[in-house]
TrEMBL record, chains A, B:
This is Arginine biosynthesis bifunctional protein ArgJ. GO terms for molecular function: L-glutamate N-acetyltransferase activity; L-glutamate N-acetyltransferase activity, acting on acetyl-L-ornithine as donor. Its main location: cytoplasm. The active site is at residue 182. It catalyses: L-glutamate + acetyl-CoA = N-acetyl-L-glutamate + CoA + H(+); N(2)-acetyl-L-ornithine + L-glutamate = N-acetyl-L-glutamate + L-ornithine. Its EC number is 2.3.1.35, 2.3.1.1. Keywords: Acyltransferase, Amino-acid biosynthesis, Arginine biosynthesis, Autocatalytic cleavage, Cytoplasm, Multifunctional enzyme, Transferase.
Length: 389, 389
């Protein structure tokens, strides 16, 4: 169903040949109102792409009518000419929809450092405009169009208690690191909500979802998450329920990204508890999630806790106070490190499940946090040594 | 020649079966004086191993007569029992040499989280003591004994202008990150120098060598670099020359580690110039060196500059002020990113050399720094998914 699940949204996905893959590569999502509230979160990368520069400005006033997205090229590090391409794309879509250019957000994903074939993007936009529909199929086409190394489209839907709807699509598989958002994500709702409400809900949701996943420690230049509200249901949600629903759908999408991380054979959920603060727990979890050695060990079905604690030991004491001699580590429920020393034998850990759970108890406080990552496999190297050379 | 090149040093390496590999696994290096000056730098990992805890205390007074080293087990995260093992090992070697236990440093490398087979370590120490010699062969045996995933022993020698000598051995291939030192390194000299001079020379040398290499971003629990001076040449070096020689031999050894990084097919030297400070240049270089995506691209012979600048863009502006639109990137001498935009075509870059040079000009100042790393290959994953499970 994707982004067309809520009332008031149409979408399309078309194949223009921008991407070498034989699949749709341009998506259009249009909010038909009656409201056009919008919020966004973006990469903090200083080399942020032209479409990010454009969209960040466009969404600032909380008013977006459409999002045009392409795979097959990131339009990042392309200078003024690249920015002009994003602007031209927004202008063109705006003219089709008879709205202002700054009511159109632009998203791109693919190789960094090359201009887009603009003619194909504009042709794609025109074709997508002609195919706009509120059907499940149209939503699915759009979700396919934004995929790059993703092996499957990623969508989610939620239903509010009084009947309002939320739908979403996301793409992301590599160059995923926990510094705001993921690659490209569009979330739609037909609830009646203000831009301020949307921004608050999205910011909080991203912080506990997209900001806590790490496929490869690499921050993208193009990360964009947009949340659009049409108000077409006429239903005003309970604010707490709305925030919780947005957080829930973002967590679902973040989990789908980790579940489809480049080359992954295991997902790894790292929960750090017993910390003095949530930030301390997060810093510890992120240090462990960033360990190539651990990620390789997990791909070899080895619950190598030495690689867990050696990563934990890189977190400065002022960031996360704890006593190394009190730290315990469970892998899939087996306590293999007990008070900084060997616990039960590693051979007792069942490593056959795809989803691996690493539970770290710092025994220093009562706060906790979870981060998610993938193992590091031959396939990851293959994808990234050979991708789009 | 290794550590036996300077006068006043004997060494040995013996095979005790601690390590599963069919090679020496216990090394002994003995300073026969007349002076016993020593300095050390150690890992900053909070889960530092028992031998690190022992040796840091032992070297604090600048007086060390011998170093006993083993591969096949790190004796890290082994609690009080592990610490007692390091202490017993030092005691035993001290009794053989008729010195005090705290005049013996202990180094271990191998799997984290398991106690050592102490009997084998002590048998090895006794056997090594019986075989001590100042020959080139004895130095080579010791250098072999500390290898783990290293594919070759790593040694270096230098001759001072007035005839004093410096010799060194190092091991290190994986779990190499730039936060003090490397795995295990012993440097010897027959110059007449004080412990204070040694510590100053070693600290400065480590900072521009072992602290600037990064195989996999993972900090070890066991990193130890020891510098021992026998004074046996009777020669007092010029202080500046001595410092420069120690820096030079450390840079040589660090280069050998990168040249033998786990699974490497390319070394990567990342020089960041045009920075506002050396720290800014270092922060940028380290961010680039940590990119799995870039390291995979290099292993696929793809000079993917998008992955260089996207890593550069993660360095906060207050750490490294620069304007993304003024950044230039050369790979092997070809300017493929010019002012934040595409420069010459990537296909012009010759990627056949083993050693790849990435030169980044921030165009923001006149300071620079270089860091060294390796590419990320299938072989790295193989080694670390299958190593000692």
């Amino acid at each position: 169903m994707s982004v067309t699940f809520p009332k008031g949204f149409q979408a399309a996905g078309v194949d223009t040949g921008i991407s070498a893959a034989d699949k749709p590569d341009v998506a259009l999502v249009v909010n038909q109102g009656p409201q056009f509230a919008a919020a966004g979160v973006f990469t903090t990368n200083r080399f942020c792409a032209a479409p990010v520069q454009w969209s960040r400005k466009a969404v600032a006033d909380g008013d977006i009518h459409a999002v045009i997205l392409n795979s097959g090229g990131a339009n990042a590090c392309t200078g003024e000419e690249g920015y002009a391409q994003s602007e031209r794309t927004a202008d063109f879509v705006a003219s089709l929809l008879k709205v202002a250019p700054d009511q159109v957000a632009v998203c791109s994903t693919g190789l960094i450092g090359e201009l887009l074939p603009l003619d194909k993007v504009l042709d794609g936009a025109r074709e997508a405009y002609g195919r706009l529909a509120d059907s499940a199929e149209a939503g699915a086409d759009a979700a396919h169009a934004i995929m790059t190394t993703d092996t499957k489209p990623k969508v989610a839907t939620r239903l509010g208690s009084n009947g309002f709807r939320v739908g979403a699509m996301v793409k992301g598989s590599g160059m995923i690191a926990p510094q705001l958002a993921t690659m490209l994500c569009v979330i739609t709702t037909d609830a009646v909500v203000s831009p301020g409400q949307l921004q608050a809900a999205l910011g909080a949701a991203a912080d506990t979802s997209f900001n806590r996943i790490d496929v490869d420690g690499c921050m993208s230049t193009n990360d964009t998450v947009l949340l659009l509200a049409s108000g077409a249901s006429g239903l005003e949600p309970d604010p707490d329920e709305f925030n919780a629903l947005i957080a829930d759908i973002c967590a679902d999408l973040a989990g789908q990204i980790i579940g489809d991380g480049e080359g992954m054979s295991h997902t790894i959920a790292i929960t750090v508890k017993g910390a003095t603060s949530e930030d301390a727990a997060l810093a510890c979890g992120r240090a462990v999630a960033a360990s190539n050695l651990l990620k390789c060990a997990i791909s070899g079905n080895d619950p190598n806790w030495g690689r867990i604690v050696s990563s934990l030991g890189t977190v400065p004491e002022d960031v996360a106070p704890y006593d190394p001699d009190r730290v315990c580590v469970d892998v899939n429920g087996v306590r293999i490190c007990d008070g900084g020393k060997p616990g039960r034998d590693r051979s007792e850990v069942d490593m056959t499940p795809v989803d691996i759970h690493i539970d770290i108890d710092l025994n220093a406080g009562d706060r906790e946090a979870t981060v998610w990552t993938d193992d590091l496999t031959h396939e990851y190297v293959h994808i990234n040594a050979d991708y789009e050379s």
